[in-house]
Amino acid sequence: MAGLDDIYDEVVDKIATPKARLLLVETLKKEGKPRAVIQACKKVLEIFPDDLHIRRLLAETYFDEGSLDLAEMELNKIAQQIKDLSYIFKFLSELFIRKNKIDDAIHSLQLYLAHNQGDQEAADLLAEISQPREEQSALPTSTLAELYYRQGQLDEAIKVYEQVVASFPADEKAKHRLSALKGEKGAQEGKMETTGSARERQLKLLGVLERWLAAVEHRKMEALQARA
What we know:
flat
């Protein structure tokens, strides 16, 4: 049977393949060699510190061996990595809302908020989409409007804010935001018109140049014919 050094060498040799290195370390664990598992995990994590599966095995092994402080340290690192990636759940929720998959959006937001309890915007959105369907359609909110805005749907955001202002005439914040969005839309349209005008001028100039070049070519041909 291969010695520990041979196993470590095999881990290093195949360390670029995630499944291979995980399989090798799991094999050590199944063989009841916790010290070898710990050393192998540490060796892998020196090169691949973001390998969650190997770090999980390391934490489990520390826990099984009664090294609770070391297990806690590794588990906290895993938890932090998961938290760093938790924005994906918020992104998913916006995708699900656009696809009208509200239950999935609610679940994704709940997962996101479990790691980001201080995100009031996400909490407001969760409260908004968790309302009964009839109530949602009858009571548009600024949160929904801002969701449309973040998705690049400026016209939809303006429509929702118009409904909010109509339903809550005293909402000065919504009125100011509606005015700002309308101003942004006007600026975009003005920019498009300016771009269109510039394009038209370029096309006209190209037309003039083409006619001038054609005239020059025509005169050259006439001159050549005259010499002949």
